[in-house]
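Re: beginner question about structure tokens

> Can someone show what the tokenized structure looks like for a real chain? I only ever see the sequence side.

Sure, here's an example I had lying around. Input first:
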Amino acid sequence: MKKILFTGGGGAGNEALFRLLKDRYEMHFADADLQAIDPAIPASQRHAVPFANDPVFADQLCGLIKRYKIDLLVPGVDEELLTVAKLAADGKVAALLPPERFVRRHLDKFYSMRFLNERKLAAPRTVLAAQAEMIGFPCIVKPRRGRGSRGVVQISSRKQLDAYLAYTGGMDDWIAQEQGQGEEFTVMMAAAADGTLRAVVPVAVEVKRGITLRAQTCRNREVEEACRKVHEADPVAGCYNIQLIRQADERILIFEINPRVSTTLCLGVAAGVDPVAVFLEQSPDGNAALLPFKEKLHLQRNWVNHIQGVSV
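And the corresponding structure tokens:
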């Protein structure tokens, strides 16, 4: 049985991933906050690691992988992706992660959107925040680097923009983006180790509060084709996430590419697509059809309260 280690182990989808995959793999989860990992996961499979910016992070992560003979690392935290990508490039770990160049590009939302726009792919017009007039108001303003919708706001005027940037600081650290109106999707992209795309799983978002709270899998030709074209422009190995809007006129606006697995990975796995297996197994020869998945599979996230007694 292969041994898999997920970092960001306290993330929203990991308890479900454990339930869905525990009979296929020996599942381990690591987090800087050990108590954030769901107690439904056995204590022997919960591990503490330093924060990604700690100088000993890489050494301790490699030590953990060696100690438990981990076959594949699945990083889930943006701040650690470049470190893991370098470790993978040096042959120190096997990781379900695209290569360093892909990670570096898409962690910077300005360069990410510029990549899409230069290739005439389905992306909104995006400029540095100081040039917001080039796309007009209202627009979306967000940090060039960030996650979980932190700092993302709708801006209606230059005056409001100047006030927001003065409050947050660092004008070059923010981008302005054309605002899309329509149905939001978060899409799982799963590719084999040779870069062959094997699955595109669109998830229609119903409720989002930083992370997706309610959503369902959904076949959509326009969404799937737009995402396939992104992969064709840079066919990388591993699993990553595309966020987009499908407007009423069917125009697709890809507003973000996350170079890692997302918190809706568990829904894709429940729908029948296992990106770990896709990556570890040899890809079929030729232009194989994308893997099927179960449609209209619904995800709903609720709070669970764990109350434990303390012996004195």
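Each token stands for a local structural state, so reading them left to right follows the chain. The first strand starts at residue 3 and ends at 7.
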